[in-house]
Design goal:
This protein has 119 residues and is mainly beta. The chain has one helix at 98-101; strands at residues 4-7, 10-12, 18-24, 34-39, 46-51, 57-59, 67-72, 77-82, 91-97, 113-117. It starts with a strand and ends with a strand.
Length: 119
């Protein structure tokens, strides 16, 4: 089972930018949907952005126009470029295989990377 390691989070002021990275333990060429999620303590994990093998993308309405998901299959990497950050974007961000993560009982998540938006 592929493992993911997220990085790039940090503390940023409102309106600032961050680029998150996700490194996969093996090739992601055969993974159709790669996704970024986020979670605030006490809340359900939320799907933020998805990218297909054909680079088709979809976004949570609240991040459209501010976040961009991308993938580099040659490097087994997925990225989330975030701009215009708002305090409500504060969360731990995770990446995963969209289809595997949607299966009941799926529990293979990385440690995530903390994004804190605050002045």
């Amino acid at each position: 089972q592929v493992q993911f390691v997220e990085s790039g989070g940090g503390l940023v002021q409102p309106g600032g930018s961050l680029k998150l990275s996700c490194a996969a333990s093996r090739s992601i060429l055969t993974i159709d949907g790669m996704a970024w999620y986020r979670q605030v303590p006490g809340n359900e994990r939320e799907l933020v952005a998805v990218i297909s093998r054909r680079d088709t993308t979809k976004y949570l309405d609240s991040v459209k126009g501010r976040f961009t998901i991308s993938r580099d299959n040659a490097k087994n990497m997925v990225y989330l470029t975030m701009s215009g950050l708002k305090p409500e974007d504060t969360a731990v961000y995770y990446c995963n295989d969209l289809w595997e993560a949607s299966k009941p009982g799926y529990d293979s998540w990385g440690e995530g990377t903390q994004v804190t938006v605050s002045s």
